[in-house]
Amino acid sequence: MAAAPLVVIAAGSDSDMPHLEKLKSELAKFKINSEIRICSAHKQPARLQSVITEYNKAAHPVMMVGCAGGTDALSGTASYLAKFPVVSCPPDGMNNTCLTNPPGSSNAFIVKPANIAKFAAQVFAHRSKDINDVLEESIAEKIVKLEKADAQLTGKSGPSSTVASHFAATPADAKPLVVIAAGSDSDMPHLESLKKELSKFKLESEIRICSAHKQPARLEEVIQAYNKSARPIMLVGCAGGTDALSGTASYSAKFPVVSCPPDGMNNTCLTNPPGSSNAFIVKPANIGKFAAQLFAQQDKEVNAALDAAIAEKITKLEQADEQLQKKQRTA
Question: Would you state the CATH architecture of domain 6-127?
Answer without folding.
Answer: 3-Layer(aba) Sandwich (3.40)
